[in-house]
């Protein structure tokens, strides 16, 4: 059993609508999974939003067609599709080619696929390009077309004129966390490629003549592992060295340092992680530099964050299509995926019969149970004002309750009996006479 299968057995996360032969690419968070997800988001807010007093907004999921024409998604947000002539199953053509050990080239697509076969033994059809956005109608006249947003970024771009008018100065940063939707051709590998997923993003608007970051000095001496364009080796580099030799942009450098801090605090193994500078043929035409955070997993190398210097491309396009007048500063974007990160945390925390989460990802601070015919609910109500407590009420063996908690990463237990309270933290066994003493024991863990 792998980490994802074990998580599903505990209802931490599981496929959506599974009683109806569910379509792939959709997952639900159970009670425990939602707690972990919220803790991840809270840490992201602390590091990326609250620390620098950035503004956070929440934009609509349905996006009008005109917005996505301006952004380029309507015409260019496509993937190459092929079908198995034997079964009709669909595949991403580029992934089929790469799985065969070949380098994908759109101009040579048919040549590269000619002698390949699907797992069913069928030949592949000609390549067609399909748009990955979910389409819908707005209203009932049929003349207003909308799409589920393919990214959270465009909501922040189209809101920029209003927010800049009230903010009235640069630099200005807008953050957002929420769902995005992409109608993937063949979602596979569990949480790695989904049709509905969460993003945590920051758009930092600035004058290109002054690519400075507020409070930059707190990051200057930090370091992270990086793989530079054209170099297969991973090396450690300081933020100042990044500015001197890679990109002279404090904003990009600060975001990379924040991401390294964020992921290591969540417990990711830094030896299995690096920041990769994308090659020139991977960078969009409007970008002046892209950097991805990549992690080694059981599914191979997985990208969990993308950083892009998007120049003024998006705002200029929206200014053109909307025919409105507003400034068009440059933008550096930090975009972090939640579900892929969630999977990496599960994989690296999996111990065969349990998960071992750290203080930033554990779903509960401790388990609270009672022995004998004792009502622990009044004490539970006092505890939840200060802690996230897993309270397992009712009859049953204490050891089974503890094992259940241990499997989801809870290794601290508060037990009430007729004498008082006993707190187990996996190492120490402390007899407590008063509930207030719990804060002393746990204070260093929070």
Give a brief rundown of this model.
The chain is α+β, with helices and mostly antiparallel strands and 446 residues long. Helix content is 30%, strand content 26%.
Write structural notes for this entry.
The chain is of the alpha+beta class. It has 3 domains: 3-76 and 136-349, 2-Layer Sandwich (BirA Bifunctional Protein, domain 2); 78-131, no CATH class; 366-445, Rossmann fold (3-Layer(aba) Sandwich). Helix content is 30%, strand content 26%. The protein contains 14 helices and 22 strands. It has helices spanning 3-9, 31-50, 65-71, 73-76, 93-99, 109-113, 153-167, 239-245, 250-265, 313-322, 338-349, 377-383, 398-407, 437-442; strands at 13-15, 27-29, 55-56, 62-64, 78-83, 90-92, 128-131, 135-137, 145-148, 172-181, 196-206, 223-227, 235-238, 273-277, 290-297, 300-311, 330-337, 366-370, 389-391, 413-416, 421-424, 429-432. The protein has a 9-stranded mixed beta sheet, sandwiched between helices. The chain has a 5-stranded mixed beta sheet with strand order 19-18-20-21-22, with helices on both faces. The chain has a 3-stranded antiparallel beta sheet with strand order 4-9-8. Strand 20 (413-416) and strand 21 form a beta hairpin. Helix 2 (31-50) runs antiparallel to helix 9, helix 3 crosses helix 10 (313-322) and helix 8 (239-245) runs antiparallel to helix 9 (250-265). The longest helix has 20 residues, at 31-50. The protein is globular.
């Amino acid at each position: 059993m792998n980490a994802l299968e074990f998580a599903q057995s505990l209802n931490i996360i599981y496929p959506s609508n599974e009683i109806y032969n569910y379509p792939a690419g959709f997952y639900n968070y159970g009670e425990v999974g939602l707690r972990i997800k919220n803790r991840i988001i809270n840490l992201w807010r602390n590091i990326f939003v609250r620390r620098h007093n950035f503004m956070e907004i929440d934009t609509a999921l349905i996006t009008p067609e005109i917005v996505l024409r301006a952004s380029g998604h309507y015409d260019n947000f496509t993937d190459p599709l092929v079908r198995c002539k034997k079964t009709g199953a669909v595949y991403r053509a580029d992934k089929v080619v790469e799985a065969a050990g070949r380098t994908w080239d759109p101009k040579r697509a048919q040549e590269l696929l000619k002698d390949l076969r699907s797992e069913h033994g069928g030949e592949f059809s000609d390549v067609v390009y399909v748009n990955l956005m979910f389409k819908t109608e707005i209203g009932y006249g049929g003349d207003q077309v909308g799409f589920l947003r393919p990214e959270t970024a465009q909501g922040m771009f189209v809101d920029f004129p209003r927010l800049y008018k009230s903010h009235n100065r640069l630099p200005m940063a807008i953050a957002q966390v929420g769902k995005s939707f992409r109608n993937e051709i063949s979602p596979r590998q569990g949480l790695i490629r989904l049709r509905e997923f969460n993003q945590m993003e920051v758009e930092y608007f600035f004058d290109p003549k002054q690519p400075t970051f507020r409070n930059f000095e707190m990051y200057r001496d930090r370091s992270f592992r990086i793989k530079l364009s054209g170099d297969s080796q991973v090396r450690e580099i300081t933020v100042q060295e990044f500015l001197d030799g890679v990109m002279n942009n404090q904003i990009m450098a600060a975001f990379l340092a924040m991401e390294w801090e964020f992921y290591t605090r969540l417990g990711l193994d830094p030896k299995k992680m690096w920041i990769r500078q994308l090659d020139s043929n991977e960078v969009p035409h409007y970008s002046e530099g892209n950097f991805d955070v990549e992690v080694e997993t059981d599914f191979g190398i997985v990208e969990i964050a993308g950083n892009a210097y998007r120049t003024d491309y998006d705002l200029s396009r929206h200014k053109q299509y909307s025919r409105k007048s507003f400034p068009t500063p440059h933008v550096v974007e930090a975009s972090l995926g939640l579900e892929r990160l969630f999977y990496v945390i599960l994989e690296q925390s999996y111990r065969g019969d349990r998960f071992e989460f750290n203080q930033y990802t554990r779903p509960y601070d401790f388990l609270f149970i009672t022995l004998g015919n004792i009502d622990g609910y009044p004490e539970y109500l006092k505890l939840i004002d200060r802690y996230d407590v897993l309270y397992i009420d009712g009859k049953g063996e204490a050891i089974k309750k503890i094992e259940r908690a241990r499997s989801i990463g809870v290794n601290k237990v508060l037990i009430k009996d007729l004498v008082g309270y006993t707190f187990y933290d996996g190492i120490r066994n402390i007899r407590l006479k008063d509930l207030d003493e719990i804060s002393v024991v746990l204070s260093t863990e929070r």
